[in-house]
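Backbone-to-sequence.
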């Protein structure tokens, strides 16, 4: 899968302080009252798939269309009906339209961070970035609270992790595949599949030498948190190298064509199928990236010809496949970019484009206790902002954690003893689970 660099540099860490629009959500007190009255279902997912759309997809051309707006806002795409009466999405997402009963659409999600890096950190953690602290991504939290068995990784990122382990430390970092699978081919991950003719005996011999070196270093660095984290990470990597279960989980070629073809032949769809295999094998969270959404120019041709067909095939295949395998009720699915795109089309190219716009965006959630086939939230006539009270990334993060049985208000202590709330400002969105 191609890694897409956004207009301001995907790897650049913007450390400027920025404000955030604090909106919406259910207070913890209200939530506890409703939960006690049986009005909210308990979270029952024990694994998750987090799909990130780096670059920021246009909400107006996907899941929050405004067909009655003037042409400079609505663009050239038309809405189509889904299999849920009253819900419409883009005509270029026909497969997702046919499975709309399996996911919930969140509209009018809003924040104020228009830089790619800051926006990504926000939606990957549920807490507004601050210069003095890096929050952990969802998978790192799940790896700490509900770790997998030793011979299978707790957290896998295909191909890269959008967010690190933050203050939790490197021991809870993701195993990154650094590449994406191709249709009909075995998928080899460095550190999982054995390449270059290296056998298990040779790996064991080298591991013994490494342990001797590690003990010597440990004598010098007994209190070093990084060394401890690397040691834990290395032990798990070795366990996975020698685990037949882990190697088989990564081998997508074992899937019958009747199953794999519903994901399409693009690498994103195959990555979604890999994610399904991994959570089925015991991985707690798999993150998958589909980039290329930074459409300042040629917005409509890029979406129509490339991004939307890929998303349509891969995500619909994932939701259908999870249901077919009996995994949808135990797998929380979360789909998001870092922000939306400007309601008004710019003139940077012949067909125009859309620029960064965090005040209004969409997110998708499915699986576990989430009730599919509904739209939560609403944007105004031009999708320029929430029509009423908006939804914050904090609210969505709190709801995602709740769906996984994790208290979003729990506290961790950093290495310096500083108490940190997992999701500082979010409230659980009760409509998702009612």
């Amino acid at each position: 899968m191609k890694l897409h660099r956004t207009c301001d540099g995907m790897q650049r860490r913007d450390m400027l302080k920025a404000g955030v629009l604090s909106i919406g959500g259910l207070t913890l007190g209200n939530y506890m009252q409703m939960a006690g009255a049986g009005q909210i279902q308990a979270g029952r997912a024990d694994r998750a798939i987090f799909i990130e759309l780096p670059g920021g997809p246009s909400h107006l051309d996907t899941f929050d269309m405004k067909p009655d707006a003037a042409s400079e806002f609505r663009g050239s795409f038309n809405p189509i009906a889904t299999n849920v009466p009253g819900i419409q999405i883009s005509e270029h997402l026909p497969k997702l339209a046919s499975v709309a009963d399996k996911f919930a659409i969140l509209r009018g999600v809003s924040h104020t961070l228009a830089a790619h890096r800051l926006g990504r950190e926000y939606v990957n953690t549920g807490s507004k970035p601050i210069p003095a602290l890096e929050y952990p991504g969802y998978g790192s939290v799940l790896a700490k609270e509900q770790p997998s068995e030793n011979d299978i990784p707790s957290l896998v990122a295909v191909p890269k992790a959008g967010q690190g382990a933050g203050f939790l430390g490197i021991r809870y970092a993701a195993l990154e595949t650094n590449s994406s699978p191709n249709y009909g081919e075995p998928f080899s991950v460095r550190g999982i599949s054995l390449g270059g003719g290296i056998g298990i005996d040779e790996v064991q011999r080298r591991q013994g030498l490494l342990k001797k070196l590690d003990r010597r270093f440990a004598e010098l660095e007994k209190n070093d948190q990084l060394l401890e984290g690397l040691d834990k990470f290395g032990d798990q990597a070795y366990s996975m190298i020698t685990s037949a279960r882990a190697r088989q989980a990564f081998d997508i070629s074992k899937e019958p064509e009747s199953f794999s073809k519903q994901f399409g032949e693009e690498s994103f769809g195959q990555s979604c199928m890999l994610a399904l295999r991994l959570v089925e094998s015991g991985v707690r969270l798999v993150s998958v990236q589909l980039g290329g959404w930074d459409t300042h120019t040629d917005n409509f041709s890029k979406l129509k010809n490339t991004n939307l067909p890929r998303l349509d095939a891969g995500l619909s295949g994932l939701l259908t496949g999870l249901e077919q395998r009996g995994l949808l009720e135990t797998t929380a699915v979360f789909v998001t970019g870092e922000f939306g795109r400007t309601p008004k089309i710019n003139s940077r190219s012949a067909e125009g484009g859309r620029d960064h716009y965090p005040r209004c965006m969409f997110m998708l959630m499915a699986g576990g206790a989430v009730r599919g086939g509904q739209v939560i939230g609403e944007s105004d006539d031009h999708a320029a902002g929430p029509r009423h009270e908006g939804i914050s990334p904090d609210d969505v993060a709190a709801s995602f954690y709740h769906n996984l049985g994790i208290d979003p208000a729990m506290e961790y202590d950093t290495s310096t003893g500083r108490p940190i709330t997992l999701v500082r400002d979010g409230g659980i969105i009760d409509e998702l689970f009612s």
